[in-house]
Specification:
alpha+beta; five-stranded mixed β-sheet; five-stranded antiparallel β-sheet; 12 helices
């Protein structure tokens, strides 16, 4: 917590990190849905939900019906009608007008869906992705990813030109030229990998919000409802036109080999059209097996998104063999701890316990985020 953090009265929850699936054994792939299905199947989970993984930035939205509801329930001052924050507890937008503009549009969707009356509440806490990715990661693209693409392309161009001159002098450089041509092709893919996730944001109308969890409302934490229910509520918020985006999803029976194959083919279609991947979850929001709590979600990312994360040549045979040895144990333990702490924080908030009791859990999540876990996982 620092002067950069959100007003602490709003900060009643932070979402958990998410582990990837086990590494795929199939050639040329690092992640595929089959491993996620196997994880849940082996732990006795009969059905899973596969959700489209939007390439945006994770956001928690506290949405109040009006400013009075915000003041009375969250104890804030002023005329704000909610807050939007990141996984590290900072305000998502630096501009208060942008925040209120987005909250106003989300409130309109809730009004239309009739959720205030149905849930008997004046506030909602939503888990969502806000797009485009460049709205938060624009500086990261400019300072980290784009320079790598530019310098790699320039260096490989000079190398290939040198090899061409060597070949013209009679030097047998065919194998080396093939290798460098392959490297250049991978770099070209890297340079365009983030294009589907970046567009100019001049105002609220350029944003998209994809909610996927209704976390809490007055008197309720909604972890007792399964993911089918949560996705149904999210679908109700999608207007014909507006900032709320639909999250495509499907339920899969893990005992049905055809259904699993169709879900894997659906994932391939999503990533083939520029999508990041999918998130696979047990149908029940909280699932337990013989050894205790089961992972709440596993992400399965596509080839080109992984290229952004691991680098231009991550899928070259030698590199892929090394990446197959990645260890997921630390990430898995972190995800479970943060998930349990988030649930406890919400239960305490809904029970109207003192804010310091809620913050015991929230700050613990922040502390866990400082653990030395590979950030690419």
């Amino acid at each position: 917590m620092s002067r950069f953090a959100l007003a602490p009265q709003w900060l009643v929850y932070l979402p958990p990190t998410m582990s990837p699936s086990e590494t795929s054994s199939r050639a040329d792939w690092l992640e595929r849905p089959e491993e996620a299905f196997a994880y849940f199947r082996e732990r006795g989970i009969p059905q899973v939900i596969c959700e489209e993984k939007h390439m945006g930035s994770r956001a928690i939205v506290a949405l109040c019906r009006n400013a009075q509801a915000a003041r009375s329930r969250f104890g804030v001052s002023g005329d704000g009608t909610g807050a939007i924050w990141t996984r590290t507890g900072r305000s998502f937008f630096g501009d208060a007008a942008m925040t209120e503009g987005l909250l106003d549009r989300l409130r309109s969707s809730v009004d239309t869906a009739g959720l205030w009356e149905e849930l008997q509440t004046d506030w909602l806490l939503l888990d969502a992705e806000i797009m485009p990715w460049s709205a938060k990661a624009g500086s990261l693209i400019e300072s980290q990813y784009a320079p790598v693409a530019t310098s790699s392309a320039a260096g490989l161009r000079l190398s290939r030109e040198a090899l061409a001159r060597a070949t013209a002098r009679g030097v047998d450089a065919a194998a080396l030229r093939t290798r460098f041509d392959d490297r250049a092709a991978r770099v070209a893919k890297y340079a365009t990998a983030w294009a589907p996730y970046a567009w100019p944001v001049l105002g609220v109308e350029d944003l998209q919000v994809a909610p996927f969890h209704l976390l809490a409302s007055e008197g309720r934490v909604w972890f007792d409802q399964d993911h089918v229910w949560h996705m149904a509520q999210a679908d109700r918020l999608v207007p014909r036109q507006g900032v709320v985006a639909r999250t495509r999803w499907r339920m899969v029976d893990l005992a049905d080999a055809t259904a699993c194959a169709e879900a894997a083919a659906w994932w391939e279609d999503l990533i083939g059209s520029g999508g990041e991947g999918i998130v696979v979850k047990a149908r029940d929001f909280i699932s337990r097996g013989k050894k205790g709590l089961i992972q709440p979600a596993l992400k399965v990312r596509g080839r080109e998104y992984l290229r952004i994360i691991y680098g231009p040549e991550y899928d070259a045979p030698d590199n892929l063999a090394r990446l197959r040895e990645r260890h997921l144990g630390g990430k898995r333990n972190l995800a479970l701890s943060e998930f349990a702490l988030g649930h406890e924080a919400l239960k305490r908030f809904v029970a109207k316990q003192p804010l310091r009791r809620v913050h015991e859990c929230v700050f613990a999540v922040l502390a866990l985020e400082s653990e030395p876990i590979d950030p690419r996982l």
